[in-house]
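Q: My labmate handed me this sequence with no annotations at all. I'd like to see what the chain might look like in three dimensions before we decide whether it's worth expressing. Could you predict it?
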Amino acid sequence: MAGYETMYTVLGVTHHNDGASTVKSDPLLTHIHQVTFPLYFRYYEMKWGGVLGQETYLVPFGHYPLNPVQDYLGMFAERTEPQ
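A: Here is what I predict for the chain of 83 residues:
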């Protein structure tokens, strides 16, 4: 999505213990992960308009700027009328 080039190699990747070994080794981290992951997942979905691979927005939350101010670029426009 960010336009970075993908490079394919023949190097293998090994995931030990089905991945996330650090989280799985600590019951508190496991609990925190189980509670927060769905929140992060929902935030991502709201921010990009869909789940991973099915995003619909090109900019976060579907509009820019995030906190629009009326005529927010007006202060930089050339002034032709007297002030």
